[in-house]
Amino acid sequence: MEAFIVLLSLFTLAVFLGVELITKVPPTLHTPLMSGSNAISGITIVGAILAAGSGDESSTVVPLLGFVAIVFATINVVAGFMVTNRMLKMFKRRG
Questions:
Q1: Contact assessment for residue 35 and residue 79, using Cβ atoms and an 8 Å cutoff
Q2: pLDDT band at 85 (very low <50, low <70, confident <90, very high)
Q3: How far apart are CA 3 and CA 33, in angstroms?
Q4: Distance of alpha carbon 11 from the chain centroid
Q5: Which of 2, 9, 41, 49 is packed most tightly, with the most Cβ within 10 A?
Q6: Predicted confidence band at 34 (pLDDT cuts at 50, 70, 90)?
């Protein structure tokens, strides 16, 4: 139970830190940072797959949370590539 509280506290701190960092970034840098975060989300997908496949046979919480992490990280990667593609189209010359 003590480990759960530590992990929950760490997650809460990461959420607040992430929100603070994102709100401090100027709008002109959001799209390039989105491109960089795609690589991080790819790593998150690998970790989520490992989490979904590991765990206790008697517990369904770990595979369920791993599956949810896979879904959210995949949505983040796809949306990031869509935004990056849209940004790159803005810089193409119209012919």
A1: no
A2: confident
A3: 33
A4: 13
A5: 41
A6: low
> What distance in Å separates the CA atoms of residue 20 and residue 23, rounded to the nearest whole number?
5
Q: Any idea which residue has 């803005």 for tokens? A: 90
User: Read out DSSP for 22-87?
Assistant: HHHS-HHHHHHHHHHHHHHHHHHHHHHHHHHH-S-TT-SHHHHHHHHHHHHHHHHHHHHHHHHHHH
Chain centroid, CA 7 distance in Å: 17
Angle at 76 between CA 70 and CA 78, to 5 degrees: 100
- Say which residues have a Cβ less than 8 Å from residue 22's Cβ, sequence separation at least 6: none
Pick from 72, 74, 89, 76: which is nearest to 36 by CA? Answer: 76
Q: What is the pLDDT of residue 60?
A: 79
Return the half-sphere exposure (C-beta side, CA atoms, 13 A cut-off) of residue 90: 7
Tell the residue number behind the tokens 């010359």, with chain if given: 93
